[in-house]
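Report of the visiting student (M.T.), summer placement. My assignment was to run the structure pipeline on a short list of targets and document each run. The first record concerns Ceramide synthase 6.
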Amino acid sequence: MAGILAWFWNERFWLPHNVTWADLKNTDEATFPQAEDLYLACPLAFCIFMIRLVFERFIARPCAMGLKIQANGPQKAQPNAILEKVFTAITKHPDEKRLEGLSKQLDWDVRTIQRWFRQRRNQEKPSTLARFCESMWRFTFYLYIFTYGVRFLKKTPWLWNTKECWYNYPYQPLTVDIHYYYILELSFYLSLLFSQFTDIRRKDFLIMFLHHVATISLITFSYVNNMARVGSLVMCLHDAADVLIEAAKMANYAKCQILCNLLFAMFAILFISSRLGVYPVWILNTTLFESWEIVGPYPSWWVFNLLLILLQLLHSFWSYLIVKTACRAISRGKVGKWNPLHVSKDDRSDIESSSDEDDSPPPHQKHHNSTTNGTNKNHGTNGYLTGAPYPDEH
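After the run finished, the structure tokens were exported:
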């Protein structure tokens, strides 16, 4: 174990040339980031999760009730032991062959069975009330941490001159403000990483998981090798747009459509300008070029910048989805009626996936005779109704 730890904490990987861990030990004159400081983030992440539960129960829920957001979930499927067994043990999306077999076994028409599976899938989705509470929690945290970051950073020299991130590096003392900022951000993203498995399941689950892992890795890397100055800039820049998207979601759940559209437009402008403009010009410029000129590259420097570039690729992907959604709404001439958080099924990675599947069949559809003989072309092998505007999100 000692050998593995010595290999992992190799000074030639983590630190610039001619710098050792002994040089960065805390003294009476100066305090530097220590790897063991990050252990505090694990119990704090659990505390944040518990605070979230209390917040959602006693603050967000009453606010939702005040906005007349109901706790009622989607319509429940009628109890049926055979279909329930297929749903839980075999598939939630029966194909055409299985649908026809179930139709003969139960003497139900295929459309009714399709509707049963759709309603049963929707049963597992949280109510609008639960979604509102989740968004209100995230909005509150992002607003607090962004406000704290701005108030803290406006007093620092590296906000106005990014070269200050690298002067006298890595012998830059750790201040109480930076330590608090880092530990709180790391704890929050750890709580998001694990609560992602219990929160509303979204179509971009893997992308968000990758985002959380990259964020946690960046925070950890930048703290351990004392790149905390530029790390604080990255965190504050990212928190700004997150405040607006959560506010837009809350407006959407409260059915304040005009406010939702306005907030989403503000989010889109801020997201694209900050992630595709400010981030590469301000952040990547200083981490790739200014640091190269002042400090020079070393192994963990390369890893840190690769993670920042990975984050930029994610920014580009999400910006593409936002622009594509907006352009499609404009091209269809539905801007006035456009709900930016209910996008079409092609774009629905999850800017926000909050609609239930449509449960009502088109009135012109035929029933048992046309569906059981294999001639009905209006239902596919995935079991969705043609009339359903959105696919199942799970």
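Residues 125-330 form one domain. Residues 34 and 173 are 11 Å apart (CA to CA). I thank the supervising group for their guidance throughout the placement.
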